[in-house]
Design goal:
single chain, Elongation Factor Tu (Ef-tu), domain 3, 29% helix
Length: 196
């Protein structure tokens, strides 16, 4: 399929009542496609929030369209959203420890490459923090500077182990033994098959 067909198929998967953050619908996507505005149509499709109706097929169509348009960062973002559809959404406010207090000296990259360990409130049988790995995607910025803070999305390697988290919970990020950051959970949305 070519790009317009991929985006048209994705628009067909959007519920009639769904609106993007800007208030646009699947009909708006189709209108932009009629005028050859592929990137605008793709941005609208990306802008639909949540994971309740979005399917793996929906994100696969957007990944394929972004790849055909040579938009690598968009394709990576759609892959991330695909994973959230499968495993759930976790948002948090991340506060990095200052470098002079033992924190990292490099910024946290925004594109989901960093995968530190996290203490998520559980302990091992020996009484140590039970650490779990999760990737970080920084929202609304290309990175978080050393000692800085900002909203992030977390994508755990073992999602079931994170299902106990609720908004307001505080977890800690570890890149070595010491705490590198704290994250206050701001949103948790279970995947459709785990909702309830």
């Amino acid at each position: 399929m070519d790009v317009p067909d991929l985006l048209r198929c994705a628009a067909d998967l959007v519920p009639v009542s769904a609106r993007s953050e800007a208030g646009l619908s699947a009909d708006d996507v189709r209108e932009y496609l009629r005028h050859g505005e592929w990137e605008v149509a793709m941005v609208i499709l990306e802008d639909f929030g949540g994971i309740r109706w979005q399917t793996i097929q929906y994100w696969d169509l957007l990944v394929a369209a972004a790849q055909q348009m040579w938009l690598g960062s968009d394709a990576a973002w759609f892959q991330w959203r695909r994973s959230e559809t499968l495993h759930g959404l976790i948002r948090a406010d991340l506060q990095l420890v200052a470098p002079d207090a033992g924190g990292r000296h490099l910024p946290v990259p925004g594109d989901g490459r960093l995968r530190p360990m996290w203490s998520i409130g559980r302990t091992t049988t020996e009484g140590h923090a039970d650490l779990h790995i999760a990737f970080i995607w920084v929202e609304s910025a290309p990175e978080i500077p050393p000692g800085g803070h900002g909203p992030v999305r977390l994508l755990p390697l073992t999602p079931l182990g994170w299902r106990h988290l609720e908004p307001g919970d505080v977890i800690t990020m570890h890149e070595q033994r010491s705490v590198a950051a704290t994250a206050t959970i701001t949103q948790v949305q279970r995947p459709r098959d785990a909702a309830g």
